[in-house]
Amino acid sequence: MALSIGIVGLPNVGKSTLFNALTKAQHAAAANYPFCTIEPNKAIVSVPDKRLDMLSEIVHPQRVQNAIVEFTDIAGLVKGASKGEGLGNQFLSHIRETSAIVHVVRCFEDENIIHVDGSVDPLRDIDVINTELILADMQTVETRISRLEKQAKSDKKMQPMLSIAKGLLDHLGTGKPAAAFDERESDIFKEFTKETRLITLKPVICAANVDEAGLTQDNEHVKKVFQFAQEQNAEVIKICAKIEEEMAGMSDEERTEFLESLGVSESGLDQIISHGYHALGLISYFTAGVKEVRAWTIQSGWKAPKAAAVIHDDFERGFIRAEVISFEDFIACKGEAGARSTGKLRTEGKDYVVNNGDVMHFLFNV
93-129: buried (b, 16+ CB within 10 Å) or exposed (e) per residue? Predict the structure, then answer.
């Protein structure tokens, strides 16, 4: 599985500039993804992970494969988007396919870049986008309720789901996202959302887009966004989309030096990826052989057979056991042979819960 992030925002907030940076990064790393066709509105970017470099220094593989993130550029939203204004339903179909959302919010002043509403007001902008997403979900739920009401007449078993759907519609009508619905952890709600794929159920990361000066010193716009995020218990990061675009073609060393010159320790793209992993509860495990050292993305809490399935379905169907070395032990023992000789290599069965950073080898038979 791969992390999939949709980038949303009003027009002229820096969303397209950020996506252009991602697209350049994609082209720079194209050799890592053979036979991969990218749609014009999508970019696939490597997940930065220094652990891969450390593993590679020991194993000396023929190639190194990072985990990947797929970014989707959603057309700039405007008021009335849920009713078809702008690109309307086109953006909705794209955003429903993503697993998380990055909401780019303009937090810089520039008289040469006209704001769609005439002035910079990040809290107003956030409210516009959130309202449109909630209205879109309300339409989805209303359509589902109409179907459930017909089904419930002949099948009483559908009544609990109908009740959940009506409660959710009332909840959305108060201006709150589906992620804040009291019944969201119930089995019935989870069954309901499998089909509806509600937008406001997805984790949202607010990206406060600033100018270069705003990277090291928070302006009033940024302070408002951080305060809003704290009140909403939401994730927020600060980026400068223009600088991200400038760094897209740089090497890792050049990028590090450039960030240090700005007084910044981590790029905006790295922040987006790490926050996305955290918001979705994702982790990585590794396979390490002479042909390839590779990171694989899974959900935290997955057991070994399910984790193996991200490599190939046969690995799960024919799972026998897994040989596991923690990342720390692999590095300390200078590889698999050292870990095996010191008893740090473990054999685990079907009930083993994979840990972040495990170096794994799966044995299977189909």
Answer: ebbbebbbbbbbbbbbeeeeeebeeeebbbeebbebb
Dist CA 206 CA 5 (whole Å)? 12
Are the CB atoms for 210 and 194 separated by under 8 Å?
no
Ranges of residues in the chain whose predicted pLDDT is under 50: 28-38, 40, 85-88
Query: What integer pLDDT is reported at residue 46 of this predicted model?
Result: 86
Pairing label, strands 3-8, 68-73: parallel
pLDDT digits (tens, 9 = 90+) for 7-54: 888 888 888 788 878 766 555 444 444 333 345 478 888 888 999 999
> pLDDT tens digits for 237-250?
999 988 988 888 78
What is the pTM assigned to this prediction? 0.82
Looking up tokens 């790393």 gives 29
Strand, helix or coil at 31? helix
For 94, the token pair is 């794209």
E strands in the chain? 3-8, 42-46, 63-65, 68-73, 100-106, 204-209, 235-239, 282-288, 292-299, 319-325, 346-348, 359-364
- Give yes or no for a contact between 106 and 115, defined as CB atoms under 8 angstroms apart: yes
Distance CA(197)–CA(98), nearest Å, equals 10
**For residue 360, how many C-alpha atoms fall within 13 Å in the half-sphere facing its CB?**
29
Bridge partners for 73 per DSSP: 7
How far apart (Å, rounded) are the C-alpha atoms in residues 187 and 46? 35
